[in-house]
Amino acid sequence: MRIRLNIAAWMRSTAFHSSTAQACPPVIKNADGAILLTAAGPFAEGDTARLTCEVETCDHDLTLTWYHVGVKLRTAHETVATYRGGWKSLVTLGPLRRGHLHSNLTCTATNDVSIPASVTVLVDMFHKTEVSVRLGAGLNASDITEGADVYMECSILAASKVTEVSWRSGGHPVKGLTGDSGEELVTSRYLVIRGVNVTHSGRYTCRATSADGETTESAPLELRVRHAPRCIATRDTALAATPGEPLNVTCPVTADPDEDLRYFWIAEDSAGKRRRMRLGAAPAEHADGDDLGHVLPSVEDSNRLELLVDTYLFHATLFCWARNSVGVQREPCRFRFQLRRKDSPHLLDG
């Protein structure tokens, strides 16, 4: 009876120690066979990590299982025995993306008689800083109207600390932009322009410099400021002509958009008397007017007006302006007439 009790006690003792003992501890090795203590890598973005989980020696059969952020990996090979009495399993992870950075990769050893044993490493990566520029919500870079407030945001994804952020427009540093209201704000991550005008059209980029000295520039954001027509000439244009001759006059405006423009023509003498300009005719003596008797300008689809010069024009100023989908030109283009000498050009300097 005593012998039976001793055998039962021995069996209970053996079962107790087997159920509480930990399985043979695994290690994770890189492709060169080096044991990884805390991290695997660094890898470049797009690489595929190839790692081995290994137990060098163990008295029991083992199963090695790989997990990435707690999810079992299907890319792991089956556990195989080594010639030294150990066990190993190979896994591939990739192509690596930014989301893999600093994620956990775990190998767990299990069998039927021991507590599972695990080892975990972090996926380490080195990659270029990513920089991009985007407009604020509700804004369209190709449909900004003059006078609107515009703000841009510099978005940066970097593995290391960013020490400097700068803005550039047309390849030149942006230190401060002034809109019609004279208000602007340039910060490291934001560029705000209040009351944009046509001079703000162009390509904008953002540059980020990391602590390791790497500088990355974003792809350009093309900003298009739509505006009403405006005169290209900054002063009166002098035209040389003789009475009775036909003359072609071009209204020199720039506009965005420049499709479907309508052009307006009218002449006014020094006494303030206005006359409507008709295509292929001299200034109308009896011009159309509105209910108040004001002379209305002629409206044309073309920026070119062919007129017959008469003596009235030598004492008057010819005005032209245009209209597009944004609005009407604020300041008209102005022409004044001079008597043309023989062999002199029709267009004179200012």
TrEMBL record:
<dbReference type="InterPro" id="IPR003599">
    <property type="entry name" value="Ig_sub"/>
</dbReference>
<dbReference type="InterPro" id="IPR036179">
    <property type="entry name" value="Ig-like_dom_sf"/>
</dbReference>
<dbReference type="InterPro" id="IPR007110">
    <property type="entry name" value="Ig-like_dom"/>
</dbReference>
<feature type="domain" description="Ig-like">
    <location>
        <begin position="25"/>
        <end position="111"/>
    </location>
</feature>
<protein>
    <recommendedName>
        <fullName>Ig-like domain-containing protein</fullName>
    </recommendedName>
</protein>
<dbReference type="Pfam" id="PF13895">
    <property type="entry name" value="Ig_2"/>
</dbReference>
<dbReference type="InterPro" id="IPR013783">
    <property type="entry name" value="Ig-like_fold"/>
</dbReference>
<dbReference type="InterPro" id="IPR003598">
    <property type="entry name" value="Ig_sub2"/>
</dbReference>
<feature type="domain" description="Ig-like">
    <location>
        <begin position="116"/>
        <end position="222"/>
    </location>
</feature>
